[in-house]
Amino acid sequence: MNEIILETRGLTKVYKQTAALNHIDLKIKRGKIYGFIGQNGAGKTTLLRLVTGLAFPTSGELYLWGKTGNKELQEQRKRIGCMIETPALFPNLTAYQNMEVQRIQRGIPDRAVIEKCLETVGIKETGKKTVRNFSLGMRQRLGIAIALLNTPEFLILDEPINGLDPAGIVEIRNLLKSLNKEYGMTILVSSHILEELYQTASEFILIDRGKIIEELSDKELNERCKRHIAIKTTNPESALLVLEDKLNTDNLQLMPDGTIRLYDHLDNTETVAKILSDAHILVTGLHISGDTLEDYFLKKVGGKSHE
After folding, report:
1. Residue ranges per structural domain of the chain
2. pLDDT tens by residue, 207-240
3. What is the β-pairing status of strands 4-15 and 18-29?
4. Which CATH architecture has domain 228-289?
5. Which residue numbers in the chain have pLDDT < 70?
6. Residue 162: DSSP 8-state
């Protein structure tokens, strides 16, 4: 089975003598969640449009599952689900009716897939309520449901949490993690809400002014940012030994001021706190510390703004 789902070689897109994408070389591997990071105008949406066939490159090569050429790419794109920019919805139709229109247009035979997709994104019970009366979060979820209609192997989402409230953001984050874990779905998600991508993705692609400036894993990012759980206790030496034993890790450090820095388990702070509590060690402070993803990105681009 082909591990490389998407590959680009020297991919370039020029609009009116301005390079929106400038010789992009990129590989997306199967089974991972990629966070695509860049400021407005950096080239994120342009790349996603080229991959999904909504636009065509000026030069360079694009491969999907190892295939290239217009005819082959169109065939492979049937394996992709996408939501680029704002989802196109019919405001006077219900969620189910919107899905039915999309199902028919795309030649998907099984009508049962509609309810499955609506249930997956949490809007199965909207009944006769029309999209006109949906909240922004519900519209975003419907857009994702439409992207899932063909049970894609590769899901591409452009700013899926745009305009969502904190609860909606968490729901979308959990949905993407679930799709990745339960179905092995490869996901490429772009967002300017960098801290949210940090909590969702396992791989990161940084783009600036049409060029890929860095690709790195979550572990590499944590190391670069020195992200860690900062733990203060009344007995730091004992706490250090307990954490080493119970978490089976040596990726931690006792600082001169008595603070323990734990460099992994960053998404598991509740477990860390419980381990110490069960060992009857009083925790007086526990929080994530180090550079944020936004700090790191701004350092990489020199704090430049494109707006």
Report:
1. 4-221, 228-289
2. 999 999 999 998 888 878 888 999 999 999 999 9
3. antiparallel
4. 2-Layer Sandwich (3.30)
5. 1-2, 302-307
6. T
